[in-house]
Amino acid sequence: MDSIVAAGLEILAAEGADAVTMRAVAGKLGTGAASLYAHVRDKGELHALLLDAVIGEVDVPEADPARWREQIKQFCWGQYRAMVRHPGIAAVSLAHIPTGPNALRCSEGMLAILTAGGLSKLVAGLAVDLLTQYTTAVAYEDTLWWVRAEDGNDPFASEGSVVAQAKAYFAGLPPAEYPMITSMVEELTTGDGDARFQFGLDMIVAGLDNLRDWRLPG
Amino acid sequence: MDSIVAAGLEILAAEGADAVTMRAVAGKLGTGAASLYAHVRDKGELHALLLDAVIGEVDVPEADPARWREQIKQFCWGQYRAMVRHPGIAAVSLAHIPTGPNALRCSEGMLAILTAGGLSKLVAGLAVDLLTQYTTAVAYEDTLWWVRAEDGNDPFASEGSVVAQAKAYFAGLPPAEYPMITSMVEELTTGDGDARFQFGLDMIVAGLDNLRDWRLPG
DNA sequence: ACCTGAACACCGTTCAAGT
DNA sequence: ACCTGAACACCGTTCAAGT
């Protein structure tokens, strides 16, 4: 059952989330797909196990009230890097909403950091969801590039050329119809995944700072 | 080719994104799956067409510099509601990163509103990605509940009982291991999808207000 | 208890053949 | 140009049969 997770992670890294099929995992273990059902209820549970294994690699810092902004950013960077280390897992996370033991440990740690920082319980809870979702979504977008570069037939496909392609696409649009986009080509295509992730983190933390006592409408 | 989109949207609404197969769409049209390939390159293009059709329902307000905060929130609410009206489309959007003509029109309008509000071009561009991603992710989470309620065998499954289930789950955790979560059960499970979406919007706009001249690191 | 092969009911996509 | 049936190479899952 542990070797099942290991085999799944190998396939995930090599061929992406869609390639983690019952048959492929069983094949890597030298057996048939039906054998897996003795250890795992279905494909969804297998994916959930992979997800929680990856989340287990993320460090959660002890809450230090004076440094909550750095700490929450540091944690999210750890989660982001763990997902980038396992390309494809972000897709699994988006499809599942993680609830395994390691995910709980992360939520617990994030709540400790955020409430130590003076956020209300309600805002801390909402922030945990929002930060997790944001981190996952950016990691997912990064791996979309990876998959596309992988199975495209252009041997020069790489992160650089994807940006170049986007730049050419925006620049080629009719300026009359798209005055904003065509006048902002440079700004729209600058910055790699890491820089863009940093922007979102800075922005979310700034937003939390301003809404630490936000209340439900009505 | 227009009827293909209509058939796809019908299946999407009735059975979710996974049910929009070539065979199902062709079946609804009284033909075979192979016939669709005369009008559409592959399943991905079909999904992209559905996505752009839904995005076409979203209104984009004329930029009014004094009201950029309300305007951008209003736009995102429109996009959110359009996706909730077509359960399942959010999953398609997450998998594709929309680039159709209607998506371009939306990006153009958002950039106009945000730059009118005084955000730098760089921040406006990053904000468009972030807001679109946030809106899609929340709509997607909403429809996850919907799907689960749909195919669960519990006839009482509904939004209310999902929350009740989560509440019971959190309350049942060992307090020694999860002191934060168990002491915040009420706050963690309060607020429906709409209220949570509003929180994120308020937070993102507050964050943008504080980072309107953010620059790339280094 | 665990594993297996074979089968069932599905997929997306291709392709030769028709009109 | 458009449509079709049949086929290919896959899926997840079940189940009777083995050890």
Automatic annotation (TrEMBL), chains A, B:
Residues 1-58 form the HTH tetR-type domain. The keyword DNA-binding applies. The keyword Transcription regulation applies. Residues 21-40 bind DNA. It comes from the Bacteria. Pfam families: TetR_C_1 (PF02909), TetR_N (PF00440). Keywords: DNA-binding, Repressor, Transcription, Transcription regulation. This is TetR family transcriptional regulator ActII. It comes from Microlunatus ginsengisoli. The gene is actII.
